[in-house]
Amino acid sequence: MKINKFALAATAFLALTTACTSSHDSADNTVVEQTEQKDTPPIDEKARALYDKCNNLNDRDACFYLGRAYYNGEGVRQDRSMSVTYWEKACSLGHGTGCFNLGYFYDEGQVLRQNYQQANHYYKIACDMNDSSGCNNLGSLYRFGRGVNQDDNLAARYYQKACELNHSFGCFNLGYSYYNGYGVKQDFKQANKYYQKACELNYSKGCLEVGNLYNNGEGVKKDFKQANKYYLKACELNDSTACFNLGNLYNNGEGVKKDFKQANKYYLQACDMNNGSGCFNLGVSYKKGEGVTKDYHQANQYFKKACNLFVGGGCNDLGVSYDKGLGVRQDFQQAMNYYQKACNLKHGMGCDNVGVLYNNGQGVKQDKNTAKWYHGKACDFGYQKGCDNYRELNERGY
Prior knowledge:
This protein is 65% helix and 0% strand.
């Protein structure tokens, strides 16, 4: 993967090396990915120009881009230990993203041995240079207490600076802090403000959370139309949960005209992004013939995918199909297999259905006591029919 700025991370501390040919031999600065490549002028004309500017003119941008060239193997033989060398020099010359990349290496244990104190150090330098990612990741180190004492107040402060520098995830993290009261007074309106900014910066989770606030009426007046608007943007930014939620609005006719075809469109988008709930709801649509032609075989395909994605309802409904012979040949053992999976996922109906098979001796040897146990488990998971079945067997002396 090509990089300029890395993905979001955490925190660290140490003295910054200024020499281009700095050593990486100390215990705190050990390169864990290394080749035999030496610091020789690259052959590629563009990379050589960067090499000359960095080493002869102390051009911080040239040093940064040369580090990136070594990281990605662009115009030079790939050597990530050399990317450390040049990002150290870029950082010492005041390039914030160079400092951030070093912090990220220490944070993730990528190229350099993991060291949260070192990560904190470089993120702090980057943040002081107004590198938004450095501020955000520094906030995360304080949020989770990695390499520093856990401090939600400092975390929120760094998220605030990251957001002011238009870092989308920093705005989201600040919104999350206000939503939960981490380091700041809980305030849903403030949460909405920062989630909105994250959304404006095209961070899908920010749009999703604004949609959730409107959907639930938290900090804003409950408004399904507004929820729809933000879920739609998040879905367009490939957030599977937003697509699923959008499908539910169309399925229920909330904020939009009830439209099963539209609901299924968004359930399919969610399912294609491996959202198990989207797959399950699409399976239900095929089972009922809502917005699509009733098709048990197709329903089972989506139930199976939902089950594989750990959605208990998918496992249970696939079990029902085998139990009743819907779109598949009737097979009580397969039904038991999927009911058991559903039960293991704490799906009450799945547990109850396991109990029914034991009670009737279908696919297993009849065992009323085991049946009672599964009915009781279903009851524990809040499934009323399981409670009723448990009570019935209990009254019969099992």
